[in-house]
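Reading a protein record of the kind used here takes only a little practice. Think of the row as the fold of the chain written in a discrete alphabet. With that in mind, consider the following protein and its fold in token form:
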Amino acid sequence: MAQTVNGGPNEFDLVRWHPADIAQAVSDGLRRRALLEDDEQAVYGFDALAELGLHPLVHEALAAAGWGVFPEQRYPCDRESGKKSLGRRCDVVLTPSPNLPLRDPEITGTLFESGAAVDPENAYWLEVKCVAQFETSGPFRRYAAEMLSPVASDIKKIWNDSKIRHGGLLLLLFTVDQAIAEHDVLAWHDRCLRKGYPIGPPSLRGFAINDRIGNGWCQVAVFTVRGM
């Protein structure tokens, strides 16, 4: 869980976010989903879902851990634009509590501002990427390519926003087994480091899933991304 230090002008100035807690929460939530699918004898598991179909499951898992979960939020630097329809958006932003929304700069200091809120600098900005070795139609032939290009792009979005102090990438891999998943995560991390991306070592969690289409393992990896 995020930890806060009270007593200052803003009690959330010293929020401490731990990637391992986020990885554990997502793993716990998806494991519960896997057990439910097994009980229902589902034809396909959640590993067959498209990436956007997995996002609600991730949100549910994070909310169950006690955080505020706010999907599709504009990046802090883009929030300075007056048009809410413009700007890049982060997959999900976390605050320390469901009762604490992300502060809206457009109404800060106005009569419309009410109650406690969390400044963007103290929230956790999380991009989500999901890649599976197998789809319902068979092997996913762009498995390696999907990891290398779009995932790196998500890192850069967090990295390039000067107002983000707490950011990370959640990588969900569905693979044949644990050995392949952990090898691929660590190989991808090494490649990112060689390219100079400001990414920390992964917090790893994982569990076996019922093999319905070829995937037998769900790997959860959360990487810290340092803001500029």
